């Protein structure tokens, strides 16, 4: 028996019923706009319709909620998989890339025949108990296009700094100026360009050392994870290969940057 026939048998006027029953949420909703023979019947009809609507809404909401819960559970499982990884490859690559970017910035700031603080980065100052890089003892700035200005943190170390710069093999002849050291940068010659390239080569090696250190830390983390989790050898080798691929990528990038800058200077 159809829903319309059921409504008529319950006492509704046949002419007051709609020609079809509406479909809500892909389900037949027994909602009929009827005018029963009595006021009490009308109230019952409205109440019944509202009750059915609330039931279907709750069911639809429940289905959406379950679907959302399943999606959330899948995301949590995926995140747990990332958390359980023996090493974070993305983090490892980011650490390497940060150092490569720093080296690239140093190269970009380097111009042959112009004062550039980077040329003094590898000067070492011999103190009583240790040997310290110049940038740790003084502020190196550009005074003008042909002169660097070195301002010691401790004015008493001014003479040590001056001597170290003169003996660094850079072809520089610094002079004392009050509490600072002025370093004239000679105009570009073949020899000065070669010295600059040599200095950049030292910077490149420092960048390589940093990248290899990040690789070493990742490999150590892998081995520790393998011991604690019982990881099989083939899986460990696969992870080590991933780390090595990232390492080679950044070492190659350092070589490319150095080669391009050396050709530019020459």
Automatic annotation (TrEMBL):
Coiled coil: none
Official protein name in the record: HTH cro/C1-type domain-containing protein
Highest taxon in the source lineage: Eukaryota
One BP annotation, GO: translation
InterPro entries for the chain: Cro/C1-type_HTH, Ribosome_recyc_fac, Ribosome_recyc_fac_dom, RRF_sf
Organism: Coemansia guatemalensis
GO cellular component: mitochondrion
Family: Belongs to the RRF family.
């Amino acid at each position: 028996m159809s829903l319309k026939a059921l409504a008529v048998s319950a006492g509704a006027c046949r002419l007051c019923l709609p020609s079809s029953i509406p479909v809500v949420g892909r389900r037949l909703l027994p909602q009929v706009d009827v005018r029963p023979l009595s006021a009490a019947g009308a109230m019952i009809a409205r109440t019944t319709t509202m009750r059915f609507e609330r039931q279907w809404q709750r069911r639809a909401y429940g289905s959406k909620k379950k679907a959302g819960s399943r999606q959330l559970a899948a995301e949590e499982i995926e995140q747990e998989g990332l958390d359980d990884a023996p090493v974070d490859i993305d983090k490892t690559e980011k650490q390497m890339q940060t150092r490569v970017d720093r080296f690239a910035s140093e190269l970009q700031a380097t111009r042959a025949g112009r004062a550039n603080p980077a040329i003094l980065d590898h000067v070492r100052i011999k103190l009583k108990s240790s040997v310290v890089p110049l940038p740790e003892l003084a502020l190196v700035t550009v005074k003008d296009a042909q002169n660097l200005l070195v301002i010691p943190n401790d004015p008493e170390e001014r003479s040590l700094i001056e001597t170290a710069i003169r003996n660094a093999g850079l072809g520089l002849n610094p002079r004392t100026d009050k509490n600072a050291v002025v370093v004239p940068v000679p105009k570009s010659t073949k020899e000065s360009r070669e010295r600059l390239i040599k200095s950049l080569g030292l910077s490149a090696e420092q960048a390589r050392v940093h990248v290899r250190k990040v690789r070493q830390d990742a490999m150590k983390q892998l081995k520790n994870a393998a011991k604690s989790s019982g990881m099989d050898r083939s899986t460990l080798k696969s992870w080590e290969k991933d780390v090595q691929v990232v390492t080679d990528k950044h070492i190659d990038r350092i070589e490319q940057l150095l080669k391009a800058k050396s050709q530019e200077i020459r």
